[in-house]
Amino acid sequence: MSNYKFPDGFLWGGAIAANQAEGAYLEGGKGLTIVDLLPTGEQRRAIMEGYVQSLIPEEGVYYPSHEAIDFYHRYKEDIKLFAEMGFKALRVSIAWARIFPTGEDEEPNEDGLLFYDRLFNELLAHNIEPVVTLAHFDVPVHLIEKYGSWRSRKLVGLFEMYAKTVFTRYKNKVKYWMTFNEINMLLHLPFLGAGLVFKEGDNKQQIQYQAAHHQLVASALAVKACHEIIPDAKIGCMLAAGSFYPYTCNPKDIFKGMEKDRESYFFIDVQSRGEYPPYAMRFFKDNQLDIAMEPGDTELLKAHTVDYIGFSYYSSRTTSTDPEVNKNQTTGNVFGSIVNPYLEKSEWGWTIDPLGFRITANQLYDRYQKPLFVVENGLGAVDEWNEEGQIDDSYRIDYLGSHLAALGEAIKDGVEIIGYTSWGPIDIVSASSGEMKKRYGYIYVDRDNEGNGTLNRAKKASFDWYKQVIATNGESL
């Protein structure tokens, strides 16, 4: 693994999200949002799937997002550390409810707008490009209560208003945008992905795909607004990626793998190609799904496609049509997968597959012929202090190094990659489990699963390793 030189101007950096890092959950006029209702523990998964008992935080329950790692107050300290590593970009999200606390306020919340002004100013002062996601698992709770979230067409116009507000405010500061984070998560964790709450008797599939249509229309309107308000900006979509391997060469397994990939590609097909693919129309028909579309939707989707494809990659997945094989499932990953006997797993059961990263990048580029942006990739692990008072996270260096080498190979394959922002350059609250002990960062945050700790920051071994990777533009790999 040698001779990797990434393109000139490659955007090296890291990625965090408002809902997992900022904290200050009601400070500065912010309204409640999805993640503010997600506790740690056994309840969390059911709530993320849409089985929500309460739309207000309950007494005596610990919600890790409420303080998170307090990035809201400590962003200057953290950005200074990112700059020390040599970051060229930091991916963040704007909390929708900081800008419009209810989602339908007549005027935006100036305190919220000022926070992101200060954040972007600080990044730019350190020559770090902000890469901004408009909705990262984020819907104001008021819109869930009043309209049922994205099941209602009403949210399309409200999201467009929010997008236009932040494009206008930050047009001189932000040149890279994304619409919805991991938009395909709507099918797997519908409350987390889209604020969808289900009650007994609901046709979940109908609600999910109707909500998906509304998000796709809202995404197109955001692309339109971005191109009009910030003509020199680039705006992309974002996919939770990772190819499905068939377990055997049985044609039935091959076909099932294709179908599982299409579940996710569907969203990007619409956002990148500008139309519903024929396989989706057949799927709707076969499953008696009647997706309400308004006049002009088809033309809007076609006219306003994304400039690039953002994606996360953590692991590949494996699928089978054999009921016996299907009993051997991995744990932890949101996307169901059979254990792949050729690959190792992380402490949380996520398959470790660097070559799969190269495969996924090639498949996306073959499919869309648009620039790709790797906006999440990383290893969640338990990090412990050694006797020398250091955190030797060589396992993380191994994971990231092998994945970056695979990305280097994808670039040699001819895949156009804008940049690489690894997930969680600083420890943050895990989206899937709500844990702090599942750490991704180059920077340790003193915080445990119960919310105890000083929140002090400390460098891990991977800090200097990634600093060297960036300084050599990948040649040190």
UniProtKB/TrEMBL annotation:
Gene3D superfamilies: Glycosidases. It comes from the Bacteria. Belongs to the glycosyl hydrolase 1 family. Its EC number is 3.2.1.21. GO terms for cellular component: cytosol. NCBIfam families: PRK09593.1, PRK09852.1. It is an enzyme of class 3 (hydrolase). GO terms for molecular function: beta-glucosidase activity. The keyword GTP-binding does not apply. Keywords: Glycosidase, Hydrolase. InterPro entries: GH, GH_1_N_CS, Glyco_hydro_1, Glyco_hydro_1_AS. It comes from Shouchella clausii (strain KSM-K16) (Alkalihalobacillus clausii). Pfam families: Glyco_hydro_1. This is Beta-glucosidase. GO terms for biological process: carbohydrate catabolic process. The active site is at 376 (nucleophile).
